[in-house]
Amino acid sequence: MNKFFQRPPPILSPRVIVRPYLSWQYRVVIIAICCLLLFLLSWGMYEVGRQSGHVMVDITQEKLEHLYAPGTCVQTKKQKLCTQIGDLVQQLQISNTTNKDLANQVKSLANENDHLKEKLVFFQQLMSGTTRNGVSIYQFSLKETQIPGKYRYTLTLVQGGERPSDFNGNLRFHVKLLQNNQSKTIPLINKSSVQDFPIKFKFFHRLEENFKLPPDTNIESLQVQIYENGDSKAILTQTVQPTL
User: Fold this and answer.
1) Which residue among 116, 179, 204, 243 has its CA within the 20 to 30 Å range from the CA of 163?
2) C-alpha closest to that of 141 among 214, 226, 211, 238
3) Could you say which architecture CATH assigns to the domain 131-240?
4) What is the pLDDT of residues 162-212, one digit of tens each?
5) How many angstroms separate the CA atoms of 9 and 194, rounded?
C-alpha cells in the first residue's frame, strides 16, 4: 500500500537531443565544397571588375587618340576654330622669325656703327694737328695668340695737318715681363736685329708684328716710343697691357 502511494524519484539529467551521426570524412567533403564555392564566387567578381576596367580604359584611349589624331580637328564641327588656331600659330612662327632677323640686323648695324665711329675718330685725328709734328697714335694693342708665349701687337700712327710732310723717325718697343718672380724690361728687335724700327709716312702708318717669349714668362705690358730722326727724346710714348 505504501509503495502504491510513493512518488517516483525526479529525473535530474539534462535534455538530450538526438542527431544523426556524421563521419569526419563527410565533414571534410562539405568544408571543401564550401571553400571551392567561395573561391569561384571571388574569382568571378574579380574577372567582371577587370573586364569592365579594360573596357573603360580602351574607350578613354580611343577618345584621346581621336581627339589628338592629325586631321581630326578638321573633321569635327569646330573646323573654323581650328583654322583660326592654325593661322595664329603660323603668324606666331612668322613673328618669331622676323624678330630673330631684326635682332641680327640690329646687331649688325651696331657693329657697323662702332666701325664708323672708329673711322670718324681716325679721320678726325688725321685732319687735326693738335700733337707735336701732327703725329699721333690712333691704335695700339697687344694680344696673346693661341700659341703659348707668342704675342701679336698692332700699331697705327696718323699725321694730321692741312699739308703734312713726310715723317721720318724710329719706333722702339720695350716689354715688361715677370720671369722667375723677377720683373724685367727688355727691348724688342726688328728683322735686322736692331732695336730701332724705322718708319716713314705722310698720313698714316700701320705696323703689325709678332714676338715670342719663354713659356715660363708672364708679360705685364708693352711700351712704344716714337722718335723723330735727329732727336734723342721720344715725341710720343704709350703703354698697353695684353688681352686675349
Assistant:
1) 116
2) 238
3) Sandwich (2.60)
4) 666 888 999 999 999 988 888 999 999 888 778 899 999 888 888 999 998
5) 157
Q: Which residue has the cell 697691357?
A: 241
3-state secondary structure the chain: CHHHHCCCCCCCCCCCCCCCCCCHHHHHHHHHHHHHHHHHHHHHHHHHHHHHHHHHHHHHHHHHHHHHCCCHHHHCCCHHHHHHHHHHHHHHHHHHHHHHHHHHHHHHHHHHHHHHHHHHHHHHHHHCCCCHHHEEEEEEEEEECCCCCEEEEEEEEEECCCCCCCEEEEEEEEEEEEECCEEEEEECCCCCCCCCEEEEECCEEEEEEEEECCCCEEEEEEEEEEEECCCCCCCEEEEECCEC
Residue 180 vs residue 121, higher pLDDT: 180
Amino acid present at 138: Y
pTM of the complete model:
0.49
* Confidence (pLDDT) at 173: 95
Report d(CA 71, CA 40) in Å as an integer.
48
State how far the Cα of 75 lies from the Cα of 58, in Å rounded to an integer: 22
With a cut of 60, say whether residue 49 has pLDDT above it.
yes
Q: Which residues contact 127 (CB under 8 A, 6 or more apart)?
A: 160
